[in-house]
Design brief:
With about 300 residues, the protein is an alpha/beta fold. It contains ten helices and twelve strands. It has two domains: about 120 residues, ATPase, nucleotide binding domain (Nucleotidyltransferase, domain 5), CATH 3.30.420.40; about 160 residues, 2-Layer Sandwich (Nucleotidyltransferase, domain 5), CATH 3.30.420.40.
Length: about 300
């Protein structure tokens, strides 16, 4: 049976696992992501981990899910933000092939998570769906007819930078009014802080989404108002995605998706009320189910099927 060494590279942790071709996790763990010379340290750590797997198991291929813009054909990082220093330009596939002789397949983290959900998670038995991740920003990935849709130059799925308000807030991408400026978890936190300051309420500068959600559950009026507005923004973006792609299913990941049934009940209710009935009646918004394992499962599937 084939075994795949799988990695999911994030700005904080690198999650890794040995997974067999049936999708059974033989071993998994995580390590802190290096913060210096990532072009050297990250592939070197991957080789070290693969060698440790090889001490007790066969390793047939390598799959990598990673933050940043990826050229999956070349297996290299086209661009990575400053939280992964010097990672831009890293030739992951070439490095591992030269060192270990193993074919290595690399994909963007959101795309890999969608593939993981398609194989072993909420997207099983679904030919068409869109994955949307609500976090510091908003990521997206599109599955059409059971295959990842990447677009003409590999950039499809950047839903976080679709425009909600052309005269809106400036975004880090250089645009204005982007979806993620209104509907990401970080925007939810920012909107609560801004509103609390207006009301002259003291707010801990380190307050996070989880603590604000506790205020929501406790009936805090300001938190409830900000949360309702946040949900409206989330739904507006999801309606736009639906009108273009009509996926039938939208899978939501990211930390806030752990809010569970009430969160998804509210999203579906607002979506059905706001969208045209010809879409609202058959579109379902559901939670991702693989949580922190989505990336490594996606990396495994990509390697098994040699998806470039």
């Amino acid at each position: 049976m084939k075994n795949i060494a799988c990695f999911d590279v994030g700005g904080t942790f690198i999650k890794y696992a040995l997974i067999n071709e049936e999708g059974n996790i033989i071993f998994k763990d995580k390590m802190v992501t290096p913060k210096k010379r990532c072009n050297e340290t990250i592939p070197r750590e991957m080789v070290r981990i693969i060698k440790s797997f090889q001490m007790g198991h066969n390793v047939d291929k390598v799959g990598i899910s990673t933050a940043g813009q990826v050229d999956s054909k070349k297996g290299e990082i086209v661009f990575a933000s400053g939280n992964l220093p010097n990672y831009t330009g890293t030739k992951l596939s070439e490095y591992i092939k030269n060192d270990l002789g193993l074919d290595t397949f690399v994909e963007n983290d959101v795309n890999a998570a969608a593939i993981g959900e398609m194989w072993k998670g909420a997207g099983q038995d679904k030919e068409n769906f869109v994955c949307v991740t609500l976090g510091t920003g908003i990521g997206g990935a599109i599955i059409i007819n059971g295959r990842l849709y990447k677009g003409a130059a590999g950039g499809a799925g950047e839903v976080g930078h679709t425009i909600l308000n052309e005269h809106g807030e400036k975004c880090n991408c250089g645009g204005s009014g982007c979806y993620e400026r209104y509907a990401s978890t970080s925007s939810f936190i920012r909107q609560y802080k801004e509103r609390a300051i207006l009301e002259k309420i003291h707010v801990d500068k380190d307050i996070d989404g989880e603590r604000i959600m506790k205020l929501v559950h406790n009936g805090d009026a300001i938190a409830l108002e900000v949360y309702d507005n946040f949900l409206n923004h989330v739904v507006s973006g999801l309606i736009g995605i639906t009108y273009v792609l009509d996926p039938g299913t939208i899978i939501i990941g990211g930390g806030i998706s752990a809010e569970g049934e009430e969160f998804f009940k509210a999203l579906n209710y607002k979506f059905k009320n706001e969208a045209m009935s010809s879409y609202g009646n058959h579109t379902k918004i559901i939670p991702a189910t693989l949580q922190n394992d989505a990336g490594v499962y996606g990396a495994c599937y990509i390697a098994l099927n040699e998806m470039l």
